[in-house]
User: Which sequence fits this backbone?
């Protein structure tokens, strides 16, 4: 379907919803083409190729709200689908806060090119994809004869979305995504088969690391886990690798949403303009980053995405306020979700930060665990490397960290100069003092 | 996008964050609803199902001929019509509804262990043949084999449903949420917020294989989820309770509704007294029921045969070896009536069964799909599952539980001088090569001097699969299945599962906590 046809279909859906009795409606149409391959043992293991369509319709009927998704875009079935959706909405309770966003919140300028669609996409063919995965596997296998298995993978996709609201908003997004990676399993000689992975995702093909590099990184990560074991429980300095930190930032993302505040499930209620972390932490929502995985001009409600500082030197500067919960709380909506997260970076690399640590643990990954958004309590499983006298000495695993986010973020003493490039959250290395580790 | 590159298989108790992602309506028993109606599951014939998808055996044979045209050894087609409904109560009113409809066919071609996969949401002969051609390309040489004539494979019914969900109107569901909400607020003055969701879905599937089998099924699922936030002395706590299964609306009796309210409240307010245990290794008693998450993570994933075929599981060389005490028997079962992970037929038309992972302490069988069964030269165990027609099959768990042992719950708790009693859980994760697994204890209690004393909350437990199996030193006689809505994630695909456990004592495992 061409862009114009999508807008025409969306227009028809909106008009049909209104004819059926909706007072307002928002329609989005998504089309995604995706190719995914996995390669192991010098041959293709899996090839998956697909085109997916979905239509989402939000209905506002006299302050009653419902949301509906279907992949069946035939007009004859859509007609009944929409009619049924509107009729069923009437059974719900009225909710005065349910309405489309104020048009003043929609973006003024939709012309800006965020460079999230790579024209190279059309020229990547299946031979090239297979060759890349073969190269990744071979680069990984070369690293050691202790490697039992390497599965390499390649994925690319192109996504077209259009969005149309009955109070005037129209927006369109076309974005590409490329991903390459490998997971490697090694024999530790003791019956264990430690594994690790490296996986990069980018908007532009040329931003991916080389296939050889990916294979080597994945293999080295798995190999350094050989001999991993738990150590004594205690309070240790914790250095969190840049790619692993998103689990920690995740503990704050829920509690700063308007929903959490309104539903009284936020340990950060009442903390606006107050310190919630050490002054080393500055977190910025930056939707305008060119080629960014989270870059966007508007969010899932059509609200303009603006550059905003969320935490400034430890002080909470804004909550994330979506349209519905903003109205419920009497707060001005400013987008209830984040785009790219960038940070104020330090001046030391991971290696330099390690040199500063007398005794501590470098966290290379979290496993399981959870956090409680109402209280801030958390507990996560970890894997990583023991640091003694400024040097990495051995791998550790099967340990937990525990604490409460209120105090925990104040224990942040340093951040690295190393933003992780393959995520919408460009986290640096993070150093925390006196973290509760449980092991032996 | 789906993190297809990570093997960090996880499981979680579905919460509203998942629900929010979802969203058709067969809300009303109206004339219009017939547009989405599925054949009456209690009288459904193969011809009804063909008619529902607008296809015939001839269409399927054409698709298969195309799929095998490049030299594939085998192919199957999976038609699915899924209807998912959620209604939600917040701030004392049922003021939101989400629905989602999926309709399509997935086509899979196998060449040895290799898989070619494609799907289409357009059930036209042209679109289906194009998808078949795409999947066919996994093979590039070999003779093309014509598919065999289809013969209906009869299936049992582990989840008969009196009234199919398509015949239950939104107006019949709304009162359940309002009743539960009233009860929640009446039970305890400290409750300040409650969110309640009624979720139901049904899937009509048809599977046909190039070796001549055709089967169909109607798969109902439902769940009521209740979360509460309570406040006491400027302290707030939140918790939740849910009941789920392949159930019809008749399951939600007045007693069940009472339990949903009272248990959600009890679990929330009990957290006010809860503390964190000391950090470190200690004996852990797992309460009967959803503690089966231990089995799911410690052994279940590691026994999925794809990981073993690739030699990446810590269990890869342990079949027929002792892995636990003689009183330990662990099964993965697809045949438990009405339980969330049960299936009348798996997603590649193989019968489900009760499969012993561990029998009297000896490691017995992997969990197989077609590829791995062929690889090992064994009969498939009925574990071939997929999230939807958009995904290829993988070996997956169904309901994983431990059979009863020789001890009583009292003996087990009495045996522990200082340890943790783990009762409710939210999620778990495993690295299947190293065997490291974790699960998160939402609530439990300390055991001191053989008695349960103070409640504890929010601690993660981490262990190593084979080690922990060896360290199971007592097994109770009170096996219970989990009742909540568990979803297991693997390579970006989520499938409903359940698990169960009698009261079990693990002699030592690392508990997250605080250091003095």
Assistant:
């Amino acid at each position: 379907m061409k862009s114009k046809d999508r807008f025409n279909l969306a227009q028809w859906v909106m008009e049909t919803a209104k004819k059926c009795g909706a007072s307002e409606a928002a329609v989005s149409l998504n089309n995604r083409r995706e190719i995914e391959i996995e390669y192991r043992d010098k041959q293709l293991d899996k090839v998956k190729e697909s085109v997916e369509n979905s239509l989402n319709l939000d209905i506002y009927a006299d302050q009653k709200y419902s949301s509906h998704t279907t992949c069946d875009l035939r007009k004859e079935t859509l007609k009944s689908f929409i009619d049924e959706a509107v009729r069923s909405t009437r059974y719900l309770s009225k909710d005065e806060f349910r309405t489309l966003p104020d048009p003043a919140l929609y973006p003024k300028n939709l012309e800006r090119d965020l460079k999230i669609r790579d024209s190279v996409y059309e020229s990547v063919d299946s031979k090239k994809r297979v060759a890349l995965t073969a190269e990744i596997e071979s680069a990984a296998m070369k690293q050691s004869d202790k490697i039992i298995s390497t599965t390499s993978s390649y994925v690319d996709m192109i996504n077209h979305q259009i969005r149309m609201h009955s109070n005037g908003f129209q927006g369109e997004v076309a974005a590409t995504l490329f991903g390459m990676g490998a997971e490697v399993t090694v024999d530790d000689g003791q019956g264990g088969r430690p594994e690790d992975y490296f996986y990069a995702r980018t908007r532009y093909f040329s931003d991916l690391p080389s296939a050889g590099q990916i294979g080597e990184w994945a293999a080295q990560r798995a190999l350094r886990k050989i001999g991993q074991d738990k150590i004594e429980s205690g309070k240790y300095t914790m250095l969190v690798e840049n790619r692993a930190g998103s689990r920690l930032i995740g503990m704050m993302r829920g509690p700063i949403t308007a929903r959490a505040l309104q539903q009284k499930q936020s340990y950060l209620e009442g903390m606006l303009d107050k310190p919630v972390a050490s002054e080393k932490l500055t977190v910025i929502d930056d939707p305008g980053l060119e080629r960014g995985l989270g870059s966007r001009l508007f969010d899932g409600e059509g609200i303009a995405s603006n550059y905003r500082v969320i935490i400034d030197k430890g002080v909470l500067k804004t909550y994330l306020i979506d349209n519905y919960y903003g109205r419920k709380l009497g707060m001005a909506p400013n987008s209830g979700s984040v785009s790219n997260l960038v940070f104020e970076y330090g001046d030391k690399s991971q290696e330099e930060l390690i040199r500063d640590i007398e005794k501590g643990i470098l966290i290379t990954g979290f496993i399981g665990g959870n956090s409680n958004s109402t209280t801030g309590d958390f507990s996560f499983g970890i894997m990583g490397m023991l640091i003694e006298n400024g040097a990495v000495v051995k791998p550790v695993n099967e340990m937990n960290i525990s604490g409460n986010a209120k105090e925990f973020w104040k224990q942040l003493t340093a951040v690295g100069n190393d933003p992780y490039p393959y995520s919408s959250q460009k986290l640096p290395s993070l150093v925390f003092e006196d973290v509760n580790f449980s092991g032996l | 996008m789906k993190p297809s590159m990570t093997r960090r298989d996880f499981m979680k108790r579905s919460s509203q964050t998942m629900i929010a992602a979802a969203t058709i309506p067969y809300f009303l028993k109206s004339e219009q609803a017939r547009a989405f109606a599925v054949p009456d599951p209690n009288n459904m014939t193969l011809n009804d199902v063909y008619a529902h998808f607008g296809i015939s055996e001839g269409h399927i044979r054409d698709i298969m001929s195309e799929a095998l045209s490049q030299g594939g050894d085998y192919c199957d087609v999976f038609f699915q019509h899924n209807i998912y409904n959620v209604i939600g109560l917040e701030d004392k009113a049922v003021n939101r509804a989400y629905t989602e409809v999926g309709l399509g066919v997935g086509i899979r071609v196998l060449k040895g262990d290799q898989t070619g996969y494609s799907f289409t949401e357009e059930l036209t002969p042209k679109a289906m043949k194009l998808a078949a051609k795409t999947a066919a390309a996994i093979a590039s040489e070999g003779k093309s084999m014509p598919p065999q004539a289809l013969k209906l494979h009869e299936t049992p019914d582990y989840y008969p449903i009196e009234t199919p969900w398509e015949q239950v109107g939104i107006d019949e569901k709304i009162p359940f949420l309002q009743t539960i909400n009233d009860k929640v607020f009446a039970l305890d003055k400290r409750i300040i917020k409650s969110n309640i969701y009624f979720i139901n879905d049904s899937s009509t599937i048809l599977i046909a294989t190039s070796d001549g089998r055709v089967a169909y099924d109607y798969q109902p699922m439902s769940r009521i989820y209740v979360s509460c936030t309570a406040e006491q002395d400027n302290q707030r706590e939140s918790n939740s309770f849910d009941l789920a299964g392949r159930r019809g609306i008749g399951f939600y009796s007045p007693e069940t509704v009472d339990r949903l309210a009272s248990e959600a409240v009890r679990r929330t307010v009990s957290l006010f007294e809860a503390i964190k245990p000391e950090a470190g290794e200690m004996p852990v008693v797992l309460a009967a029921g959803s503690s089966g998450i231990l089995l799911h993570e410690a052994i279940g994933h590691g026994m999925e045969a794809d990981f073993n075929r690739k030699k990446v599981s810590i269990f890869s060389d342990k079949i027929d070896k002792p892995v636990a005490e003689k009183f330990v028997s662990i099964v993965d079962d697809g045949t438990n009536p009405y339980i969330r992970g049960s299936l009348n037929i798996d997603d590649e038309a193989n019968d489900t069964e009760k499969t012993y992972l561990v029998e009297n302490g000896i490691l017995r069988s992997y969990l197989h799909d077609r590829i791995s069964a062929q690889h090992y030269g064994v009969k498939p165990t009925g574990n071939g599952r997929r999230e939807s027609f958009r995904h290829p099959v993988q070996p997956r768990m169904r309901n994983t539980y431990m059979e009863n042992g020789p001890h009583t719950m009292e003996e087990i708790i009495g045996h522990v001088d200082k340890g943790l009693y783990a009762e409710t859980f939210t999620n778990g994760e495993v690295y299947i090569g190293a065997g490291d697994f974790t699960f998160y204890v939402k609530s439990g209690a300390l055991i001191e001097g053989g008695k349960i004393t103070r409640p504890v909350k929010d601690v993660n437990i981490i262990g190593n699969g084979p080690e922990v199996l060896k360290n199971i030193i007592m097994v109770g006689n009170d096996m219970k299945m989990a009742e909540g809505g568990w979803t297991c994630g693997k390579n970006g695909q989520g499938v409903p599962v359940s698990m169960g456990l009698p009261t079990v004592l693990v002699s030592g495992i690392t508990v997250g906590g605080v250091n003095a």
Residues 3-20 of chain A form the longest helix (18 residues).
